[in-house]
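Hey, I was hoping to borrow your eyes for a little while. I've been puzzling over a protein and I'd love to understand its fold better. The fold is given in discrete form, as structure tokens running alongside the sequence. I'd be grateful if you could look everything over and explain what you see. No rush at all, and the record is pasted right below.
>
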Amino acid sequence: MKSLHLALLLLSLVLVAPSVSHAHGFDAPEDQSGYAIPSIDHAAMRVIAPYRDRIIPLARQAAATDAELSALLLHNQMQAANCLWLLVPGSLTDEENPFNECAHADMAGLKAMLERLSLLPQTQGSARALISDLDRDMVLAGTSFVLCAFARESFNTASQVRPDWAAVSAYLVDRYGSVFGLAGALACLCLTGILILRWLRPGPIDRRG
């Protein structure tokens, strides 16, 4: 029952949000005192995302002995949290999504970590094998590991990219309003049915007489 009430509350918060969404725009890192992170294109983002579970453990093995890798790893872990771990639909694929710039920073950080790992003696073999697998998948997707960065945008380990939270609800309503409406209607029907059944349920029979 509590979970149903929570779902209805979240649904109401989304439905009362403003109905205008805004396209994201890239901004230069506020603090550029850290290590630069070249950006990554949309096709490469979609391909590299499933490799997170292979890149992060490898990075943890060598982070203690390499300052740049350690900074990249810390930045990426924080950046992934800022992006809500890409759980919001369209984070990777939709440029209008308020989380898209955040996802760019997240995926660019993964790529930068893998490039750094390929230069370190203790992880070079494993990293290059990963790059080979990744590059094959990127070529199939119409991009390439070695060509996917574009110079006009970059990130920095000293700066985090956060989504425009004011635009998140509006985006969800704009893209998934009909789904939320149907879910809300079904939830209301279920709640109404539960209340009716409780009202119609006969009370306990007193057998003492």
About this structure: Residues 108 and 190 are 44 Å apart (CA to CA). Residues 1-24, 147-151 have pLDDT under 50 and may be disordered.
